[in-house]
Specification:
The structure holds two protein chains of two kinds. Chain A is an alpha/beta fold. Chain A has ten helices and 13 strands. In chain A, the strands form three sheets. In chain A, strands 5-6-7-3-8-9 form a six-stranded mixed beta sheet, with helices on both faces. A four-stranded antiparallel beta sheet of chain A has the order 11-12-10-13. In chain A, strands 2-1-4 form a three-stranded antiparallel beta sheet, with helices on one face. The chains are: A alpha/beta, B mainly alpha.
């Protein structure tokens, strides 16, 4: 099984993390606009990877490229050792995908959908699918179109998981779920990862909920990768520095990601280990939401409104 | 995959099948008395002897014509059925999946896209051709007596023989291609309908009369089995009279107090006909079918090429 992961770095006996997904200079253009630009990633296996970014950042494009639904304009992809472009039954069977809005054949009953999965896959764990559905109380005889959004998401997840994939890719699985269904869904997902060691990659435009379940982050903004890495390592690497208000960028502090000025205080997000804090400044740990927002704001186009009050302050 | 095909398309297939079965039953039941009368009342005999204008035959033919001559009046409406079959099934190939997002479900199972497409195309095109072909066969049989008397080259070319299944295949391919481009069922169906009508009208008006060089003659060979394309008057030197010259002739005949036929005869003016002989019917059917099948194949290759390239 190890050679399928396509890492080639596991000579030391499986301690070194293997690679689930590797992309190089991956780009996708729709007519004139680039949805994704120079995306180079190396994502480890057996992780729960969150793909985060604002609407229109290119999340869906990246996920569709990874599962082979669309072809890249430029660049290479390897997913669990296969190119999605090969489109062979073997490569397809290794990846489970739940698309945005968890599309299902609405006129099929749940049992029909399971039969669809069984007849269109090499590996199929019918018992697993039926158990998962009965756990969340979805009757097999009901038509998919009559299920609630949360139930449809559960059915779509059961279909993807019954393939016993090495990689499970989900596009905005939480977007249409209420908080309770959201929690239930994540529980199901986490259960699968714990049982099978599946690698999970899912996208979200909201950052809340992620911190509890994800251990790896990809932050996408305007079609480019803004930040990627192990979440604990990222949080450890970054600090929030709070001090008296200063105008303009601080030349003394290296690796400032973002600076914000309040009425009396300036807050800086910095990427630095063991930073010496200047007198009058405090160093705080950073949360995932603050980290993500900091990187998104850094890449945002500066607006006149934000720079105005700073220029009024005498230095 | 086969099970998926059946489960996904059984509703349309059964609905279309029932509709066409009902239509076919109505045609068969309606045709039985006409076919019996054709055989038993001497019409077939008159045609077989080649004497439809003998005294008894004229009477027999007139009686049959009075009774059943109007039976073909509504049949040209069947010209739309090939689109109903092909367009319906063609738009369910991709437009419905793209509209509902289920293409992402279908193409991430372990069945490669091109295999999925091949199974769907073979089955759906097969059903399309079978249904349209069956209706065309029933229609052809229904019109047998009417065609034997009045011919079928000019008026019912589009609903008989092998052309209707070719039209249906073309409608399927048009709907499949427009579904891929527009990604929604109803707009795709509407666009395909416009394209279908335009191409069908264009081919039948401009291309079909010229599949083979038409015959032009100065003899009066009026035969209902021929397809008369154009007619007019020709003078002794072989010059085809213009409309103005024909008018002048008619006025001159009136001034000379002669009936027109006699006047034209005395001036060496005869009638000319340009027509496609009736025995070319099947050649024309095959040529027309080949054209529509070729266009359908080109469209389907385009669809398959885009699906293969994943240019969605």
């Amino acid at each position: 099984m190890t050679q399928l992961m396509g890492s080639g770095r596991n000579e030391s006996g499986g301690v070194v993390e293997q690679t689930a997904i590797r992309t190089a200079q991956l780009s996708k253009r729709y007519r004139r606009t680039w949805a994704l630009r120079d995306c180079s990633l190396e994502l480890p296996t057996r992780r729960v990877i969150a793909l985060v970014g604002p609407n229109g950042a290119g999340k869906t494009t990246l996920l569709r490229l990874l599962v082979g639904l669309i072809a890249p304009t430029e660049g290479q992809i390897a997913v669990v050792g296969h190119s999605p472009a090969s489109n062979t039954p073997e490569a397809l069977s290794r990846v489970g995908f739940v698309a945005q809005d968890h599309p299902l054949y609405r006129r099929f009953t749940v049992a029909d959908l399971l039969r669809f999965g069984r007849s269109c896959n090499i590996r199929w764990d019918q018992a697993l699918a039926e158990r998962r559905l009965s756990d969340v109380g979805i009757p097999l005889h009901q038509k998919a179109g009559t299920l609630s959004g949360g139930q449809q998401a559960q059915v779509a997840l059961a279909l993807a998981m019954a393939k016993r994939p090495h990689l499970l890719v989900l596009d905005e699985p939480l977007a249409s779920l209420d908080p309770l269904a959201c929690r239930e869904f994540l529980q199901t997902l986490m259960g699968a990862v714990a049982e099978d060691g599946t690698t999970v990659l899912f996208s979200s435009h909201a950052v809340t909920e992620l911190e509890r379940v994800c251990d790896y982050l990809i932050l996408l903004n305007r079609g480019r990768v803004a930040l990627t890495g192990d979440i604990d390592a990222l949080l450890g690497d970054h600090r929030l520095l709070v001090g008296p208000r200063v105008a303009g960028p601080h030349r003394d502090v290296p690796n400032v990601i973002e600076t914000r000025h309040g009425d009396r205080q300036t807050t800086m997000l910095v990427r630095a280990n063991g930073l010496e804090v200047a007198p009058g400044w405090e160093s705080h740990p950073v949360g995932l939401a603050e980290l993500v927002l900091g990187y998104l704001r850094r890449d945002a186009v500066p607006t006149v409104a934000r720079s105005e009050p700073i220029s009024q302050v005498p230095s | 995959m086969i099970w998926l095909m059946w489960r996904q398309h059984r509703a349309e297939a059964v609905a279309l099948g029932l509709f066409l079965a009902a239509l076919g039953t109505i045609l068969v039941i309606g045709a039985l008395p006409m076919h019996a009368s054709f055989r038993n009342d001497g019409v077939a005999d008159c045609l077989a002897r080649g004497t439809p204008f003998s005294d008894t035959c004229v009477e027999v033919m007139a009686r049959f014509g009075g009774e059943y001559g109007g039976r073909g009046a509504l049949l040209p409406l069947l010209g739309i059925i090939p689109f109903a079959i092909g367009g319906f099934l063609g738009s369910s190939l991709l437009a419905r999946e793209l509209e509902a997002g289920t293409w992402q479900l279908a193409w991430t199972q372990a069945v490669p896209r091109m295999r999925w497409l091949a199974v769907k195309l073979v089955t759906l095109v097969g059903v399309t051709i079978a249904l349209a072909g069956a209706l065309a066969a029933v229609t052809t049989w229904y019109r047998g007596p009417l065609d034997a008397i009045g011919g079928r080259f000019e008026s019912t070319f589009d609903i008989e023989g092998v052309a209707p299944p070719a039209y249906a295949a073309f409608a399927f391919a048009t709907a499949a291609a427009s579904g891929l481009l527009l990604r929604r069922s109803l707009p795709a169906l509407a666009a395909a309908f416009v394209a279908f009508l335009a191409v069908r009208a264009g081919v039948s008006i401009w291309a079909r009369p010229n599949y083979q060089r038409p015959v032009t003659t100065n003899q009066d060979v009026s035969n209902p089995h021929d397809w008369l394309l154009d007619t007019g008057l020709v003078d002794g030197s072989g010059h085809h009279l213009t409309f103005a010259e024909e008018n002048a002739m008619a006025n001159a005949a009136r001034n000379a107090n002669m009936d027109l036929t006699g006047y034209l005869d005395s001036h060496g003016v005869a009638r000319w006909d340009t027509y496609q002989p009736g025995d070319r019917f099947w050649t024309f059917q095959l040529i027309e079918s080949a054209i529509f099948v070729a266009v359908a194949a080109a469209l389907i290759v385009m669809v398959a090429w885009r699906v293969r390239r994943r240019a969605l």
